Sequence to fold (434 residues):
Amino acid sequence: MRRIYLDHNATTPPPPAVSEAMQPYLGPEFGNPSSIHSFGRRTKAALERAREKTARLLGAEAGEIVFTSSGTESINWALIGGARARRDQGRRIITTQIEHPAVLESCGYLEREGFEVIYLPVDNTGLVLLDKFKEAVTLETILISIAHANNVVGTIQPIAELREFISHKNILFHTDAVQSTGKIPVDVNELGVDLLSFSGHKLYGPKGIGGLYVRRGKGLPPFLHGGAQEQGRRAGTENVAGAVGLGKACELAGEKLAADVLYLRRLARTLWENLQGRIPNISLNGHATERLPGTLNISFGAGDGASLVRRLDLEGIAVSSGPACKAGASEPSTVLLYRSPGNGVGARADTERHPDQSWPGEYGRRGRGGGGSLRETSWMLTKIHLIPICNQYIQISYRCYRCFGLSQAETTKGVCFPWHFRLETSRKIKKNQR
Fold:
């Protein structure tokens, strides 16, 4: 069976050039970059070259890039370190209800330390409500963290506009750019952010390596304590092979970024148009235009996301119904729960609201009550330009009465897509079928 990978928001496959760049530092070039002899000097030089390549992709200076173990570590450091460093200036932190768990859990930790966290609502496309953002900023505000692009629906936030509103205030602005780095242009100076988190494995680099951009003059206290690595900002022997792989991935991304964006938009648009014509009762989650070019988050009129993902996997198609870090969770994605309904998507089952309203109507602390569930289920299809399926036909068969809630046998056949992707759905009912 030929397997097709459509889950690039979870992780991406490193190309051979990345693996080849890393290989010497997994074997003969084993020196500790902190050592002053030739073995250490060679790995130190490789580490700094990787830092320069990474900085170039972000429009930053090499000295503003700190290598970490992951996007999660970078986010924890930015939020917890930033808040603790400014606790004497105020206690208010602003974020949104649809952030990655690394942000939400870090904010929950800071709440337990006595900080006040405001979780801003978003509209039915996933965009931050600007009026609520402006209302939330007070003299007590010390830190703001809003993702550049959402990891579930792909909506891109107007970070530069938000940052401009507080430009005259002494407030740290962090953005989680784990999903956007390497997929769309990301320039720290155009965005105006003080802190920016990113991760290697989301942009065709290796796992186990990430980074934090720290604007010059906006220093953070060390999050890990020990040696003087990373100019005394992060203790621990650096992952040289991982950093080299990340640097190579950033270099490749910069070379083909503009072409990739255009190509992905065309493929995603064609896929969505064909799905609309072949599957009833589906809708697109997130913003129609301000979105990552390779992300499609789709809701179906009925069904269970986990069951659909498992069924597609049996047919050789890898998709996701939510973020990988929450895989196996029975609760729906908070990204869809906290979006306003808009076409019925993302509403709690026990709540009816006007499509123009946000959920909830006022900003505040994160709500975990209600016990509701989504009417729709999400199917995330991302980064389809790397799928080598030319001259191949893929059949996807749905035969799950429980998932689709059908009342009669149905069979819908698709057409051959421009890149030779054939969608065929067969939905049948049997009394004993589960």
Observations:
- Residues 339-434 have pLDDT under 50 and may be disordered.
